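Researcher: I'm comparing several assemblies side by side, and this is the next one on my list. It has 700 residues spread over two chains. Same procedure as the others: predict the full complex and return the structure.
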Amino acid sequence: MSSPTVPPAIATEPQRGEVAVRDVPGEAGNVGEPKKGGWGVRIVVTLIVVVWLVPTVGVLITSFRPEEQVLSTGWWTVFAHPFRLAEWTLENYRTALDAAGFGNAFMNSLAVTIPATVIPITIAAFAAYAFSWMDFKGRYVMFVIVVGLLVVPLQMALIPILKLYSGGAVLFGRQIFPDLDLNGTFLGVWLAHAGFGLPLATYLLRNYIGSLPSSIIESAKIDGADHFTIFWRLIIPLSVPALAAFAIFQFLWVWNDLLVAYVFLGGTSQNQVLTVALRNLLGGRGEDWQVLTAAAFISMSLPLVVFFSLQKYFVRGLTAGAVKG
Amino acid sequence: MTDTTPEAVAQPASAGRVGVFVLRLLSAVLVPIVAFALLWVTFDYLRDENANRFIVVGVALVVGVGGVFFLYWGANRVIEFLPERVREGVRPYVFVGPCLVILAVFLVYPVINTILISFKDARSESFVGLANYRFVFTDHDMLTAIRNTAAWIVIVPFFGVTIGLAFATLADRLRRGEAIAKSAIFLPMAISFAGASITWRLIYDFRPQGFGSNIGLLNGIWIGLGQDPVAWLTLQPWNNLFLMVILVWIQTGFAMVVLSAAIKAIPDEIIEAARIDGASEMQVFRRIIVPSILPTIVVVTTYMVINALKVFDIVFIMGNAESDGTVVIAERMIDWFFSSRNFGRGAAIAVVLFVVIVPVMIWNVRRFREEELTR
């Protein structure tokens, strides 16, 4: 799987991940497979696959049907006459994108997700390099603290950070952290996501960067490269698999997150991200299934593209993310 | 001469040590502060609610992607001006400091603060002792939430792991199409809980007689079986199960992928040998496959338990949790903290969640590390 210069398996993933990645995107079969199943196996597998796909297919079909059809007959009735053109429309997507504000929400989601993915990765990569290849006092203790913070659930941080954003921090009657008025701002959400993502990012990247062969770093040092050059020219290119895996995990995590966006960005129509917009739409127009399904599909579109185009990294990222608190 | 040398060296060194320490601290804090200032300036523009969204995204991209990196680059250049002896002592803190500062602000401080707040009243003005914790374990909705969460952490992992394991085993035996079949099960992992909730609300949709036709799939099937339509999402206590189905739907793919990989890692000779000795497929599965992948099953289960403990979005979106009786702990926390603005109670619920999650997580991380070591 991995090219010789890259360490054995991505550190984000114990050996099971190597195999997981190998067997998900199209590999016909392995040597020494168990006995191939007959019809029984095929039928059961097909049945489970159908059950798993039905919900998504229902949303997809409903989102392309005109309102009167959606509200009078179930989406599965289209299979009786799938080529009746009058029963298909793109109108719902137009409504969702413009009137319901999902075009705007999509852009907001991008504006939240991209920096909230890149900022923690950058910070974590530098820290991971220092933890692996630099010598300084307290290195071990600091790393243990970072790993220890993996266990903190997000919920523990919400109230204090919200207070920090809207009033600063006061200790013994003295202002120790300024009131930055960050509630309802992108910056506030970026920083919060960066903070919550850092322990996992640092931990995974340190495992990976630390497992790179020390000989290449030594020889770069002999050639006169300083730490910054080694990091930027050598470590980053070699760490692409780990960086990609974490990037995808964090991207999906932020994109699909409702809690942090709801708490720190709030539900104003200008700033809302897709998940918050979906929730508001459900509260306001909970019976407009044609718009709801179109909106839901808009919110799923990007993760599904990532899923189908980067499946290898996608699986690695999600399985590595299993240790996020 | 030899007696004085150590002292002579020690004197300036200890003065220098303080200087170096200050420099280290400065360089660690400098990057976050400059980063913040930079973000703040560009972001003053982002704060403008009517700004063109495309430009907002563009600015976000440039600042987020390039800005932070250039700060490290800049800080690294700045320390080049330091005398050589000090420089290499300070440099690690430029690299590692920003990470620690952000973690201190966004995780360490909040944990301490949340614990403190949990002993204070609704507006964190005066200490109320254990009143908030008394509330957590006596309030009617909280007790329901604890009961429901207990059900979530048993039922969701059980079905997720069982279906995932069964599917992994069966898909392994397909002649072709294994990859496609697995993708189909894994696909919901890409969807947000909010999106998944809408997806499933469409399935559970219900209209009473005379209020339009039932377009929900479940009622469609139910009516097809000759029954009256049912309001699934308000049908207590079963509605809890219908919500759990959503999480199972999302996370079975994860269990399936990880377990499937573990199954494939079992040495073929063992299974072959068992077959030659005349073991049936079922015996091979129960006596060899399951025991060999038991550690992986435990890891997957803990992952799903933690997710079930923290479930919030699904319950929050699917209906009125209080009147439907579908409250869970994480949802109660947000409700008290955000809707009722009672910080004390919200914090107490968070602490309870923390206390339950921490041992599971410690164990989980430790296992993860062990696996890495043996690799």
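Model: For your comparison table: The domain at 133-374 of chain B is CATH 1.10.3720.10 (MetI-like fold).
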